[in-house]
């Protein structure tokens, strides 16, 4: 096998490695973004529950008056 073949193989390997690195970097970015989104959803659920409880307490106070 000639040197040309090995040079081409090295270039292909570097290209694949570079593309793989870009894909992994993008996936990590998307995972972080998804974690932030999920955290927001959890926090909003707690806020909604708290708001519901507050409305019930206000309704009870109004009924007493």
Rg computed from alpha carbons, rounded to a whole number of angstroms: 28 Å
State the secondary-structure class. mainly alpha
Shape: rod-shaped
Give the helices and strands as they follow along the chain.
H
How much β-strand is present in the residues?
Answer: under 5%
Low-pLDDT segments, ≥5 res? none
Strand count, sense and barrel status of the largest sheet are:
none
What is the helix fraction of residues, given as a range?
over 70%
Count of individual helical segments: 1
Secondary structure topology:
Layout: H1 3-64
Describe the structure.
With 65 residues, the protein is mainly alpha-helical. The chain is built from one helix and no strands. It is rod-shaped and about 95 Å long. The termini are far apart. 0% of the residues are buried. The mean pLDDT is 92.
Nutshell version of this structure?
The protein is mostly helical and 65 residues long. It has 1 helix and no strands.
Write out key terms for the chains shown.
65 residues; mainly alpha
């Amino acid at each position: 096998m000639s040197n040309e073949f090995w040079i081409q193989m090295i270039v292909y390997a570097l290209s694949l490695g570079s593309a793989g690195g870009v894909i992994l970097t993008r996936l990590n970015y998307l995972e972080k973004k998804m974690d932030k989104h999920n955290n927001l959803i959890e926090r909003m659920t707690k806020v909604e529950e708290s708001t519901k409880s507050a409305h019930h307490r206000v309704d009870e106070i109004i009924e007493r008056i």
